[in-house]
Design brief:
alpha+beta, Anthranilate synthase, twelve-stranded antiparallel beta sheet, eleven-stranded antiparallel beta sheet
Length: 440
């Protein structure tokens, strides 16, 4: 965080980044914010000096900045629009936060799709940027008065209150979901695709207090990344189990998770589930073909001979579930950048299927409504040095008309419809018990 901005560093002992993030979002999170937890640090962006939004149809973009609002045609070059926005509005040293909706993929791949209501891509250069570590709180912004307000909020004594839980029925829709799985199994048998992830959405009974839900859920989850975002009426909070991609120092990596069992508070039951997971032929096949596809995708954008599986089929604990996980990486080609990598790796194989294009098309046919941000990505961009896209799963979503949670399961030829439904219930258990009702 550099340039002519004002900056203040507050030394604290044992700063609780989660509590500070919740407080900032609750008090100062008005129209736009993004909070992102990585490597034990919390990054919080509040307000915007500039935003880019590419509409649900993918053909138009809007840039809002101190110079006003500019609109234009994307000409089907979404990554080029994003690069231009970054060049114009994100000086060196400025973090940029963002989100990518699921339908970004069929749009950039020229596939037909049904537009949702959420933008395909949003990028935000924050007006206020806060980073919380265990010993410091660093605040950077354009205005001294705004900096004082942020310091006041992070320094004041937190008021502890117990939010009201939001009721939700995670078993709703069992018959309909199992019928979708049977349809998918028929299409797999006919050779349409090898694997597909089909999901189901469950509405909450009340509006959600997103900052409170972030705090409640993060305390009970072990995500790869945690996040909260708000862009106008569209909000999400989640506990991402994996990175779709990370580009750091020219190394691009992806971390596919496939294969799931419940995680129990009973150590003996947990150990049984773990042994069942690592020895289940269906789960092993599902994971292996996902890793194979990850290798193939990276080979399209990486220097020949550099793609490698760095970690294969280890067990990753993610809140209410445990997964088989791997890490695949390679050296990015000299003529490629992070946006090129995103266009290849997004959306995650583990949230779509194999082959990816066929699975995306089938998801559009089989699921009742567009996925919006579910199985999309949250972005954290730090200049040309580091670019992360965290998979949006284990999350709650909210806009002007509805609030919901969503989960899916990987379907292959060996799948059992009832077991796949239970897997979605297990995954919803990472989020649904920790939703807080919006105060009335």
């Amino acid at each position: 965080m550099s340039g002519d901005r004002v900056r203040r560093v507050i030394s604290v002992s044992d700063a609780n980044g989660l509590e500070i993030a919740e407080r900032l979002l609750s008090v100062l999170g008005r129209d736009q914010y993004c909070a992102y937890e990585r490597d034990g640090k919390w990054h919080v962006g509040l307000g915007a000096t500039a935003t880019l939004a590419i509409g649900p149809g993918g053909d138009q973009y809007e840039v809002a900045s101190k110079n006003g609002v500019r609109t234009g045609a994307t000409n089907a070059e979404l990554a080029s629009v994003a690069r231009q926005f970054m060049a114009e509005h994100a000086p060196s040293g400025r973090r940029v936060y963002g989100q990518v909706a699921f339908n970004y993929a069929p749009c950039v791949n020229g596939q037909p799709y049904t537009p949702g209501t959420w933008p395909l891509l949003i990028l935000m250069v924050p007006r206020v940027d806060v980073m919380v570590t265990s010993g410091t709180i660093e605040v950077c912004c354009d205005d001294e008065a705004e900096l004082d307000e942020v310091v006041r909020v992070v320094s004041e004594q937190a008021i502890i209150s117990l939010p009201t839980p939001c009721p939700i029925e995670t078993h709703a829709g069992e018959v309909a979901y199992q019928e979708i799985v049977r349809t998918a199994l028929g299409e797999i048998g006919s050779g349409f695709y090898e694997k597909i992830i089909v999901s189901r959405a469950v509405a909450t009974q009340e509006r959600i207090d997103m900052p409170a839900s972030l705090a409640l859920g993060r305390r009970r989850n072990t995500p790869a990344r945690a996040f909260a975002l708000k862009f106008g009426s569209r909000e999400a909070v989640g506990f991402s189990p994996e990175l779709i991609m990370s580009v750091d120092g020219g190394i691009v990596s992806t971390e596919p998770l496939a294969g799931t069992r419940a995680k129990s508070i009973d150590p003996e039951a947990d150990a049984r589930n773990r042994q069942e997971l690592v020895n289940d032929p269906k789960e092993i096949v599902e994971h292996a073909i996902s890793v194979r596809e990850a290798v193939d995708e990276l080979m399209r954008i990486c220097v020949k001979g550099t793609v490698a599986v760095n970690d294969f089929m280890s067990v990753r604990n993610r809140g209410s579930v445990q997964h088989l996980g791997s890490r695949v990486s390679g050296q990015l080609n000299a003529d490629a950048d992070a946006w090129d990598a995103l266009d290849v790796l997004f959306p995650s194989i583990t949230a779509t299927g194999i082959p990816k294009r066929a699975a995306i098309a089938a998801i559009g046919r089989l699921e009742a409504s567009p996925r919006e941000l579910y199985s999309g990505a949250v972005l954290m961009i730090e200049g040309e040095r580091r670019f992360e896209a965290a998979l949006v799963l284990r999350a709650v979503y909210q806009d002007a008309t509805r609030s919901w949670v969503q989960a899916g399961a990987g379907i292959i030829a060996q799948s059992n419809p009832h077991r796949e439904f239970i897997e979605t219930v297990e995954k919803l258990g990472s989020v649904a018990p920790y939703l807080a009702m919006e105060p009335r």
